[in-house]
Design goal:
By secondary structure, the chain is an alpha/beta fold. The chain has 3 domains: about 130 residues, no CATH class; about 150 residues, serine acetyltransferase, domain 1, CATH 1.10.3130.10; about 100 residues, UDP N-Acetylglucosamine Acyltransferase, domain 1 (3 Solenoid). It is built from 13 helices and 18 strands. The strands form 5 sheets. It has a 5-stranded parallel β-sheet.
């Protein structure tokens, strides 16, 4: 195997001494280069430096391939210097002169013994096979074509993009706001936990100022985006965002009380709960309700985008999908919670308990193209009155469906019609078949 690597320059005399070949025969032995290298698929590792852009690169290619800079595609690269490595011989460099490079060969001509040892197919390579990833020209051209096609697609009305439009709310910032609110509404549980009565005012003051700055900025973006979308641009988006932030912050004390009642409902409804702290720290149902109550306050103020971003974030974490437009009373309890769906126009009374997999949804939207627009804004989801319990996997659909107070809906029940108050709805037990070990 011939290994050619860049190092410092040297002379043909040094090479002849290392290989034990008379100096005058070095070029003769290397004159069989091109044919031998092509037949054997020889490659060289060619470190070089582009004289145009200054990029230092290492390129592994066949001798017959042109040498181009992978950055600017220029051919103005420095002449590399090569090493010729033979078994049991020192490795010395050979200068890559203009009349020498085309004749480099993996054959040493008449030196048959050395030739056999160098070209032995079973010899493992004695140099690193690593090479940097580089685009060949044809691949680069194809990527450029993809880029051009994507740019053209942005001018197609059938596709969706947000290019050249006003800034939209930042999802990352909204998630951070939820973290701030979790710390503010449950002080001492999240964020800074080393709180005392003497440091509480300072801590809450610092958190509320940070909340105001972040919340007002994202509210302004949401309002401005909606103005641009509806072609009703105004100059008061920032002022309204700041005002809505303060109005929301004024709701925080009542939100704390509502969430405290939700925590109590979880504790009363789940004998497995050991403490209120355990519920606040770890119950996914409570987290989904916390995010819903925050998002709902923004929803009723007609703040676009932000409420849905919040509840979908909670959905992704807990598997509980509560639309911010739903109306939910106090002392709401979701046990386990995974797979729960509560639609936008759902009305839920006080002290309602639901379990995993419950769907409070809408009937299917008509297939006509305007079906969704026809139903948008109408009541499509059920009403659940006070003190109702809905067990796992029950499905209740339709805007005209009303579940009366104190009713119990059993597991796996499917309802599209109303249920009177104080009613228990169950499905007939399935017929079980018991077999002993013999299969009888």
């Amino acid at each position: 195997m011939v290994q050619l690597l860049q190092e410092s320059s040297s002379t043909a005399r040094d090479l002849s001494r290392a290989l034990g070949i008379p100096e005058k025969e070095v070029y003769y032995h290397l004159s069989h280069i091109e044919k031998s290298l092509r037949l054997r698929g020889g490659v060289i590792l060619e470190p070089a430096r582009c004289l145009d852009c200054g990029f230092n690169f290492r390129k592994r290619h066949r001798l017959t391939s042109p040498s181009r800079c992978p950055i600017c595609r220029s051919e103005a690269i420095t002449l590399p210097v090569y090493y010729l490595r033979a078994p049991n011989k020192l490795v010395l460099p050979v200068e890559a002169q203009d009349d020498f490079l085309p004749r480099l060969s993996s054959s040493l001509g008449r030196c048959n013994e050395m030739n056999r040892s160098i070209f032995h197919d079973d010899d493992p390579p004695d140099f690193c096979e690593f090479k940097e990833d580089q685009l060949i020209p044809s691949q680069e051209n194809r990527i450029r074509e993809v880029i051009s096609a994507m740019v053209r697609s942005c001018n197609d009305d059938k596709t969706i993009d947000h290019v050249g439009a006003t800034l939209i709310p930042s999802k990352d910032e909204i998630i951070k706001i939820l973290g701030m609110l979790q710390d503010i509404l449950f002080p001492g549980f999240f964020g800074r936990q080393e709180l005392s009565p003497s440091t509480l005012e300072y801590h809450l003051g610092n958190e509320l100022i940070s909340l105001y700055e972040s919340l007002s900025a994202q509210l302004s973006r949401s309002i401005r985006h909606e103005c641009r979308r509806m072609d009703s641009l105004c100059v008061k988006c920032v002022q309204r965002g700041r005002e809505e932030a303060i109005l929301f912050m004024e709701k925080l004390p009542s939100l704390r009380l509502a969430l405290a009642l939700d925590v109590k409902a979880h504790y009363d409804g789940d004998p497995a709960a050991k403490s209120l702290d355990e519920i606040v720290f770890s119950y996914p149902g409570l987290y989904a309700i916390f995010v819903y109550r925050v998002a709902h306050e923004l929803f009723v103020k007609n703040i676009p985008l932000m409420p849905r971003i919040m509840t979908e974030h909670a959905h992704s974490l807990t598997g509980i999908d509560i639309n911010p437009g739903a109306t939910i009373g106090k002392e709401f309890f979701i046990d386990h919670g995974t797979g729960v769906v509560i639609g936008e126009t759902t009305n839920i009374g006080d002290r309602v308990r639901i379990y995993q997999g419950v769907t409070l949804g809408a009937l299917s939207v008509p297939r006509e193209s305007e079906g969704g627009n026809y139903l948008r804004g109408r009541k499509r989801h059920p009403t659940i009155e006070d003190d109702v319990t809905i067990y796992a996997q029950a499905t209740i659909l339709g805007g005209e469906t009303i579940i009366g107070a104190r009713s119990v809906i059993g597991g796996n029940v499917w309802l599209t019609s109303s249920v009177p108050a104080d009613t228990t709805v169950l499905i007939e037990p399935p017929r079980h078949v018991f077999k002993d070990d013999s299969g009888k």
